[in-house]
Amino acid sequence: MPLSYKNITSVALLINKLFYRALILQALLAFQIAWAAPSVTSEAERQPLNTTAIVMFVLFVVVTIAVSFWASKRTQSSSDFYNAGGNLTGLQNGTAIAGDFMSAASFLGITGLVFAFGFDGLVFAIGAFAGWPIMLFLFAKRVRNIGSYTFTDVVSRRLERRKISVVTIVGTITVVIMYLIAQMVGAGKLIELLFGLPYEVAIVTVSTLVIVYVTFGGMLATTWVQIIKAILLLLGATIIAVLVMYQVDFSLDVLLQSASAVHPKGGAILIPGVLFQDPIQVATILVAMMFGLLGLPHILMRLFTVPSMKEAKQSVFYASLFMAYFYLLLVIIGFGSVLFLYDNPSVFLDGQLIGGGNMAAIHLSNVLGGDLLMGFISAVAFATILAVVAGLTVSGAAAISHDLYAGIICKGNPDPVKELKLTRVTSISIGVIAVALGILFQNENVAFLATMPLVVAASVNFPILFLSLFWSGTTTRGAILGAIVGLISSIGLIVVGPQVWVSVLGFESPLFPYNYPALFTMPLAFITMWIFSVTDKSLQGEMDRIAYNELLVSSEYGPTDNHVGT
Amino acid sequence: MENEDKILGSIRSKVRQRFLFVSITVLLYSSFVLCYTENGQFLGEVVGDSATSGGLILFLGLIVVFLLLEYIFIVLNKEK
Questions:
Q1: Beta-carbon separation of B29 and A252 below 8 A
Q2: What is the pLDDT of residues A10-61, one digit of tens each?
Q3: pTM (2 decimals)?
Q4: Distance from B6 to chain A by nearest Cα, in Å?
Q5: Between chains, do A133 and B66 touch, taking CB under 8 Å as contact?
Q6: How many Cα atoms occupy the beta-carbon half-sphere of A545 within 13 Å?
Q7: Min CA distance, A133 vs chain B (Å)?
Q8: Cβ A232 vs Cβ A85: under 8 Å
Q9: Which of A24, A301, A321, A339 could form a disulfide with A259 if both were Cys (CB 3.0 to 4.6 A apart)?
Q10: What is the DSSP letter of B46?
Q11: Looking at CA atoms only, how far is residue B53 from chain A in angstroms?
């Protein structure tokens, strides 16, 4: 059967009906599992039902669902869905970007690492922050000026749209799915611990709520969920940090000295070397985190939600301000958790922190602020996952409905109503797929799952985006081959690295010694792109090179000023 | 034609400025790896009688410097 408008729409409508049923089934399943006997992890791991946390979380859900219904009335077109109509202010978008990026992994993960290893945990904090200045210097203005909704729009501006779109869609979907799996598995485990809810209930709840936000309110609802979450997270982190500093007379030196006095590693936690000794290992993490951020499709997509290049730059600056503040707070919270938890036997079971290292921030909130603060922080952690998953869902839906359906199948002329319908169907599909993958991968190592998207984004999306914007010699052939090499090498090296080869597959030693191979795979992608671009003598290659000057002007002055000849 | 060259020349100078900021950022960022090398031994020691290590000062300093660089970049490129 030939692929036509009519066929696609009929299939889309059928899928729509099926997925609405699936959504209802998901909700029923959530209730069913909630009342059934829990069976996912041992009772020693799972916390008792945390009523305060659940009440606070329900409040958050009520507010955000109200926001979604308000947003749904303003989401009438695909444009509204993808970029919230492009009318957000720099401050709103900056807060939402911070909300999108400051994940539970940052808050709970980095605190847990500082709790266990001291200073070395901060490698991940500097890695998570340092990509933002580069985002401002290189991409904020240029990406905003050239693109419309997705990063595929940007790279296809001068490269052959259909061919390069296939690669960027694969890159986007790979990153989104990997990120989604990591978030869903993390969410399931975390919520099980924080709320005392079974794993399946946790991921079905996350997925159902995200489907409601995204399907009804699109990017506008997602933005406000992210803004609310960012404010709550910063508020919660500030309260914990102030309570920690109050206990040590607001002296960082007293905090560090007291923390090193109670930690089993003593003064070693104040200096580098407890977790990492190999500088190459540290470099691999730093490269993957900095350049991975620059290739994350759901982050790049946020640059299109503001009306001007000025607001785009302000967005990134505000986002950086919030994140700088947040990562500085994590120093206090991390060392505070060392000080207040290591000599507190009630948070340990069989010599291990109850719930694992990721629970350090939660236990700290309980020690400092009792059930109320712990409930608040737990609810914030849940909200954090919702906000990140919502951003990923919008990005994945845009890749399918805008890049694939509108851009490739309809050759840039889709029926707007059908496109919007397909976008909503895709969002629901992603939600259902997220639940399935969350259940399928529930026993996998979350750290490994979280590694993949950053490495792939740094090795596939970032090189294409950077070279298409800054090197006139880039051709479609070079970009495609470089991206393929980046994708295969990054996934291949991750598989033979310690996280998969040893931890998952059970081999004795890894074939490749590092978990974050972007230090090697990103240059490999760049070199491949360069070689296959300079040797490209095709007509398309010539057209790609000629189109650069026009792109240069458009990216600098905006789409209305692109009058410089080619 | 002359106008086009002028516009492209001005854009290229802006691109050079972008790359300068990127280079400074990446260079400073890479300095964090020094904490784990023999050359950066001073970063692995606490400063004076305090409990603050050179590495922690570098961490805090980098975040502040990155923010400053962003601010300077925005001021230099204020849209008219």
A1: no
A2: 444 444 444 444 444 443 333 333 333 233 334 445 566 778 878 888 888 8
A3: 0.87
A4: 10
A5: yes
A6: 13
A7: 6
A8: no
A9: A339
A10: B
A11: 6
| Cβ-defined contact of A286 to B36 (cutoff 8 Å) | no
Residues of A in contact with B51 (CB under 8 A): 253, 256-257, 260, 267, 270
DSSP letter at A36?
A: S
Residue A44 confidence (pLDDT): 41
* Cβ-based neighbour number of residue A33 at 10 Å: 20
Residues 6+ apart with CB under 8 A from A170: A487
Measured CA to CA, the distance from residue A546 to residue A557 in angstroms comes to 19
Q: Six-digit token pair at A265?
A: 């590693």
Exposure string over B66-80, b if 16+ CB within 10 A, otherwise e: bbebbeebbeebeee
pLDDT, mean of residues A492-501: 89
Of B44, B70, B79, nearest to A271 by CB-CB distance is B44
Which residue of B12, B17, B29 to mutate against A (max A Cβ within 10 Å)?
B29
Sign of CA dihedral A558, A559, A561, B1: positive
Q: The tokens of A425 are what?
A: 């169907």
Mean pLDDT of chain A: 86
Contact B56 A119 (CB under 8 A): yes
